[in-house]
Amino acid sequence: KSEKCTFCYPRMEVGQPTVCSETCVGRIRYLGVLLYDADRIEAAASTPDEQDLYQAQLDVFLDPNDPKVIEQARADGVPEAWIKAAQASPVYKMAMEWKVAFPLHPEYRTLPMVWYVPPLSPIQSAVAAGALETDAEMPDVASMRIPVRYLANLLTAGKEEPVVVALERMMAMRKYMRAKTVEGVIDHPTAERVGLTARQIDEMYRYMAIANYEDRFVIPTTHRETSEDAYGLRGDCGFTFGNDCSGGRTELGLFGKDKRSRAKTKTPMEM
Fold this sequence. Notes:
By secondary structure, this protein is an all-alpha fold. The protein is 39% helix and 3% strand.
C-alpha cells in the first residue's frame, strides 16, 4: 500500500503516536504541541531576507508557560489538556528552549512543522580517532565531517550560527554527562560556555539520550464536542452537484436520489 503521509490522524486524535514514530527503533522521533500566533504567520512567511526566516518562524510560537499566553488560550477555547500538553511538549523544548532542532528548508516559506536535529555522531567518531581538532576539549565544529554550511543550507536557509550553537550544545551535553557519570564532577563551565544551565543539560539528556516513551510523545486527544461535522464538509469546494462551494451539503445523492427523507444529523454543538 502506498499513499501520502496523513500523519496517522485517526491515531493522533485518540492520543496515539504515528506508526513511523511508534516503530522507530532509534527513539529519534518526537511528537508534541506548539502554541502559535496565527496573526504572525503572514509576516513571518513574508520576511525579505531568507536567512531571517528561521528566527521569524520561532517568533510565531508562543511560550506555553507564560501566564498571558495561558489566559488568552483559555479565552480562545483551547482545552486545558492541550495547554498542559504544550507545556510538556518535547518539540517546544528542542526547538525553542534548547534550539537544537530546525525546520527543513525554511527558504521555501512554507513554515514547515517537521523539525530536524543535525547529526552529531560522525564528529565524535572522528575526534576519538584523532582526526579532528579540539577546542578546550570539545570538538571544533568548523572541522567536523559534515560541513556546517551543508547543514545550514538544509535547515536554516544558509545561516550557520544557529547550527553551530546546536552542535556545540549537544557536544557540551556529552562532555557534561561524561564528567558527571564517570568522574562524578558537575562541569558547570561547559554548560555555561554554550549558554545552558546544569538543569537544562540534565533535561536534554533525559529527552535525547534516555528518550522515554512518555517524554517523546505528548499527544492530547481530540475534543469531539468542539469538532466540526467532517462528514458534512466532505465535498466542500470539491466535487459538487452544481452548487459551487456549498459546504458539501446537497439535496441529491450521488446517483440522483433525493436525500430529504433522511433525518438531519445534529452535531453536538447544535444540540
